[in-house]
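In the lab's daily routine, each protein ends up as an entry in a very long ledger. A line of letters takes care of the sequence, but it says nothing directly about the fold. The three-dimensional part falls to structure tokens, numbers that each stand for a local backbone shape. The outcome of that step, for a single protein, is printed below.
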Amino acid sequence: MAEEKKFTNFAVQNGSVDICEVIKSYIPFLTVRRLSENATLPKRMFPHSAAYDLFSARDVMVPARGKAKVATDLSIDLPPGTYGRVAARSSLSWHCSIDVGGGVVDLDKNPVFVILFNHSDVDFEVKVGDNIAQLVIELHAIPEIVEVYQ
């Protein structure tokens, strides 16, 4: 019988901790507010998907070789110690030459926008409800800066 100890409310067996359970308890909820009736809540394609899909709340044309700012009409309240990284959808990148400009969703609860870049020679049409990007929730640290001298 393996010795069992408690580690911040998690069972430690044979010196290992179920990190998934630790993370689930640390990041219990992602609270989201819809800012319009066109807003679609983020959703994961599959139970084990690493990211939440983000959807357009407006019809937008991304010009050939151009860019556009696409509204999701969502305000997202991220758990402390996390940030959201807006990432491209590989299928849009591969099939349509659409890429996402680097985006970070902070704890400020501002409306979330997605910058789309069109690397093709034809305009790209985005419709309300289209899956345009992914939101990856990542843990982060904000260390204090200490200046050092030679």
Q: What stands out?
A: The chain is about 10% helix and 45% strand. The first strand starts at residue 4 and ends at 7. The chain has one domain: 30-139.
